[in-house]
Design a protein that fits this description.
With 278 residues, the protein is of the alpha/beta class. Helices cover 28% and strands 18% of the residues. It is globular. The structure holds adenosine-5'-diphosphate.
Length: 278
């Protein structure tokens, strides 16, 4: 327990050994005694299709490249895309009532609903509480041994399911992913507000598909016009904004299941902050 402990987990974002509940008083899902997860980073977005899974994958790849034991909990139960980005199609096995995570080519441990379904094209048409229950099981009943960083690909949006997931896991920090289209609306502010209300620090915002670099003239084109990302970040006191361009090579790598081979420094600052260098 920290010496500054207020004994009120509701208002404290720290994940100390005494912590038993998340913000809003929800009890955290209990981890099994064989798992050891040191830091949990949640990746959220106001809506689907903005690149949340891509950012989760890229951050995990970067943490792994730095030599950390890295894991991904794919909490996007109705739209899992992590297995495909890493070309991991195996089925999960269990030992002593515990599910074993599947390891990617470079050794990132992951758990996703696709590792459990017979046919990955089967739609998951479960109601909210069942989805939240599955995510809690991914936390409690998977053998997460010796994990330095776990990245959680959260369900998109700010509804009941992402909220419950959020409240069930002891999250240390949040990355909010947006796209410029999203920024013209209030969706991103809702996502930022949800994170703020959870009492967990927002590490930074990623504006994905921010611009496009023409391979003929090499100029940056802001297809969606100038975004108001800086104003939103300032309004909420968020210091870090990273931008990822719309990138053909990146899309091809993800589609081919080779996200571990991506090149690009767009998220380097985010990794440095997580790593405590900034
Ligand atoms: P989300 O998790 O928010 O639903 P994804 O990460 O699955 O979104 O991305 C949606 C689609 O857009 C994927 O096919 C992905 O490869 C593509 N995509 C995402 N970001 C980029 C980008 N910066 N450049 C090119 N394609 C991208």
């Amino acid at each position: 327990m920290s010496s500054e402990c207020s004994n009120n987990c509701n208002t404290c974002g720290k994940n100390c050994s005494n912590r038993k509940e998340g913000a809003s008083g929800n009890p955290f899902a209990v981890n099994n005694d064989k798992s050891d997860i040191k830091k949990v980073i949640a990746v959220v977005s106001g809506k689907g299709g903005v690149g949340k899974s891509l950012v989760t994958s890229m951050m995990s790849v970067m943490a792994r490249r730095k030599g950390y034991n890295t894991a991904i909990l794919d909490a996007d139960i109705t739209g899992p895309s992590i297995p495909k980005s890493f070309n991991v199609m195996e089925k999960a096995k269990s030992v002593d009532d515990m599910l074993l995570p599947i390891e990617s080519k470079t050794g990132i441990k992951m758990m996703s609903i696709n590792f459990l379904l017979d046919d990955e094209t089967t739609p998951v048409i479960w109601r909210g509480p069942v989805i939240s229950g599955t995510v809690k099981q991914f936390w409690s009943e998977v053998l997460w041994e010796d994990v330095d960083y776990m990245f959680v690909d959260c369900p998109p949006g700010t509804g009941d399911v992402p909220l419950t997931v959020f409240q069930s896991l002891p999250v240390d920090g949040i990355i909010v992913v947006t796209s410029p289209q999203e920024l013209v609306s209030t969706i991103v502010e809702k996502a930022v507000n949800m994170a703020t209300m959870m009492g967990v620090p927002i590490i930074g915002i990623v504006e994905n598909m921010s611009y496009f670099v023409c391979d003929k003239c090499n100029e940056k084109h802001f297809i969606y016009g100038k975004s108001n990302i800086e104003e939103i970040a300032n309004k909420y006191g968020i210091k870090l904004v990273c931008r990822i361009p719309m990138d053909k090579k990146l899309r091809e790598l993800v589609d081919a299941g080779q996200v571990e081979d991506f090149e690009g420094q767009w998220l380097d600052e985010m990794m440095e902050v997580i790593d405590g260098h900034k």
